[in-house]
UniProtKB/TrEMBL annotation:
Any Pfam family matching the protein: PLDc_2
PROSITE patterns, per the entry: PLD
Source species, domain of life: Bacteria
Molecular function GO labels: cardiolipin synthase activity
Record protein name field: Cardiolipin synthase
Keyword entries, A-Z: Membrane, Transmembrane, Transmembrane helix
Transcription as UniProt keyword: no
Domain PLD phosphodiesterase: 220-247, 398-425
Length: 485
């Protein structure tokens, strides 16, 4: 024993070198073979080689995408019917409702989403918490068999407790309820709303909580940013709204933040429910029976429009929204309107936006004048010159923070939902959006964006150049960390 101990003391530097070489080499090979983005591959290999023991540990925690293999791998939830069994055929031609240039975009959506484009949906736009939360609570109060609620942030405040009260009353009526909250998003208020839900005996779960039992980091960077409410499989809500009192005028007063949400009826509700069911089963291992949670009959009001859900996230739907937007910007012929609270597109999306502008397309980009995330605002500012110098018009909206995520193309196609135009939403978060082929809906969303532009300040290259050097340097340094903001 003493001899072994002496040998270890004498040769431990050599053993450490061999161990670091083996571990570091294995991790570097894995990064080189699995990363599709050359910059990510170079970055991780560099981190690993520069710190042969610590680097592989960091890579193990933050660099390996386990979710791509684990997240239900799109093995169909056997309790949910396949959408091909729906008696209504998918919409084949969108030229009449949107325009001939959108035919190729519809084909792209078919291949990215795996959900069919369904006609017969009614979509109602809801402005902020003043309209959204009462509509959600009214739907919950009318529930007869099931309520599925998924959100990123569900604050334990006056508005959050109103939703819990409505859910509790529904549970007392015998309604089946499932509530899924992101583990990171649940920490935005203290104490967490999850305690109140459990106290009221409302079935709930946290998405991506502590998977290894002792180390929270492996999944802390992968979050469910989706917002879904489905009642009786017939009425759905989705969009950008979390559940927070700061979006309600009666509570926040002059500091009320804005957002846009959507109430939907029609076959797209089945797609919302499918996304929730997959996320719930992944989190809890519980399969939700079709008969309780879905409906084959809808009584959607007119006008009825074609729509479908687009999933994206660090699973097999990686860069789903990214690819949809590349296609949408490519087919634009007149006008692209973008409203995003966090506008940090990668170089590929920037190239698509700038190319559209150079083709003569009018590109309007609306960002908040007052942002709730200071670091993101700094990083955004560092990148704005890249779109302005190519002909895009960038507007900083006046007034309070606006959390809306809205895109329209040529007054006929709209893209709405939970995705921001930043690296986190486009690659790390689980997101849910809708593409809508409807001139009426697009005009309604355009009016919202144009209203912001009417009271906005144009961002110019001259204005950006006038920012003091120390602040421009700060912005660029923070911009380097933008993939993880």
């Amino acid at each position: 024993m003493t001899s072994l101990h002496s040998l270890f003391l004498e040769y431990w530097p050599h053993l450490a070198f061999v161990l670091s070489l083996a571990v570091g080499g294995t991790a570097a090979v894995h990064a080189a073979m699995t990363k599709n983005d050359v910059r990510a591959a170079i970055g991780w290999v560099g981190v690993i080689l520069m710190s042969p023991l610590l680097g592989p540990c960091v890579y193990l925690i933050a660099g390996i995408n386990r979710i791509r293999h684990d997240h239900i791998s799109e093995q169909r939830n056997k309790s949910l019917k396949d959408y091909s069994g729906n008696p209504d055929p998918p919409l084949a031609d969108v030229s009449e409702v949107a325009g001939p240039q959108f035919g190729s975009l519809k084909v792209l959506g078919d291949r990215i989403s795996r959900f069919p484009l369904r006609d017969g949906n009614h979509i109602q736009t809801l402005a902020g918490g003043d309209e959204t939360y009462p509509a959600m609570i009214a739907a919950i109060d009318g529930a007869k068999k099931s309520i599925a609620l998924q959100t990123y942030i569900f604050d334990n405040d006056s508005e959050g407790r109103k939703v819990v009260d409505a859910l509790s009353s529904a549970r007392d009526r015998g309604v089946e309820i499932r509530v899924l909250i992101d583990a990171i998003g649940s920490k935005y208020s203290h104490p967490s709303i999850i305690r109140l839900l459990r106290k009221r005996r409302i079935p709930c779960a946290l998405f991506m909580t502590n998977p290894l039992g002792f180390l929270r980091m492996p999944y802390a960077n992968l979050r469910s940013h989706r917002k879904i409410l489905v009642v009786d499989g017939r009425v759905g809500f989705t969009g950008g709204m979390n559940i927070r009192a700061g979006f309600v005028t009666a509570v926040a007063g002059a500091n009320t933040s804005s957002d846009t949400h959507f109430r939907v009826e029609g076959p797209v509700v089945l797609q919302l429910m499918s996304v929730f069911a997959h996320d719930w089963e992944f989190t809890t291992k519980e399969a939700l029976p079709y008969e309780t949670w879905c409906s084959d009959e809808w009584q959607a009001a007119s006008p009825r429009v074609p729509a479908r859900c687009i999933r994206s996230g660090p699973d097999r739907y990686m860069v789903g929204t990214h690819n949809m937007l590349l296609g949408a910007f490519a087919v634009a012929q007149r006008h692209i309107r973008i409203q995003s609270p966090y506008f940090l597109p990668d170089q590929i999306l920037l190239g698509a936006i700038n190319t559209a502008a150079r083709r003569g397309i009018v590109v309007d980009i609306v960002i908040p004048g007052r942002n709730n995330l200071r670091l993101v605002n700094y990083a955004m500012t560092a990148q704005l010159d890249q779109v302005i110098r190519n002909g895009c018009r960038v507007w900083r909206a006046d007034g309070n923070f606006n959390h809306s995520k809205l895109i329209t193309i040529d007054g006929a196609w709209s893209y709405v939902g939970s995705s921001n135009l930043d690296p986190r939403s486009l690659r790390l978060n689980f997101e849910l959006d809708m593409e809508i082929y409807s001139r009426a809906t697009a005009r309604e969303i355009e009016a919202l964006i144009d209203r912001e532009i009417a009271h906005a300040e144009a961002v110019t290259l001259e204005g950006l150049a006038m920012i003091p050097f120390r602040k421009r340097l700060r912005n660029r340094i923070i911009w380097l960390a933008s993939p993880y903001l």
